[in-house]
Amino acid sequence: MKNYLEEISIKLKNQIEIEELIIIDNSHKHKGHKFYSNEKFYLHLKIKSIYLSSLSRVIAQKLIMKVLKKDLEKTIHALEISIEQ
């Protein structure tokens, strides 16, 4: 799992100017939910980025989701994004 989270971090940092990125795996909080799968992740991205902060929230989140498109299709079930400057 750690390798996968590092992979996500590298993808984002290679495509977007990010000063700090913290990835929190909240998958354990969703056990027992109707559509829970232990093969998919429930992630919270805490991002410090002057660049992303300069964009509208919707545009910034779309950019992040574009970078993670394949992961969202296969490996990530839910993605919470927090952006600060």
**What is the number of E strands?**
3
Q: What is the H-and-E element order?
A: HEEHHHE
| Helix segment tally | 4
Summarize the biggest pleated sheet: 3 strands, mixed
Structural class: alpha+beta
Secondary structure: helix percent: 40-55%
Question: What is the overall silhouette?
Answer: globular
Strand content: 25-35%
Kindly report the spatial arrangement of strands forming the biggest sheet.
Answer: 1-2-3
Q: How far apart are the first and last residues' alpha carbons, in Å?
A: 28 Å
Rg calculated over all Cα atoms: 13 Å
| Overall pLDDT level | 90
Low-pLDDT residue spans: none
Q: Would you give an account of this structure?
A:
The protein has 85 residues and is of the alpha+beta class. Helix content is 41%, strand content 27%. It is built from 4 helices and 3 strands. The longest helix is centred in the N-terminal third of the chain and has 14 residues, at 2-15. The N and C termini lie far apart (28 Å).
Produce a short descriptive summary.
This protein has helices at 2-15, 50-53, 57-67, 69-74; strands spanning 20-25, 41-48, 76-84.
Summary tags:
alpha+beta; 3 strands; single chain; 27% strand; 41% helix; 85 residues
Itemize the secondary structure elements and their pairings.
Layout: H1 2-15, E1 20-25, E2 41-48, H2 50-53, H3 57-67, H4 69-74, E3 76-84
Parallel strand pairs: 2-3
Antiparallel strand pairs: 1-2
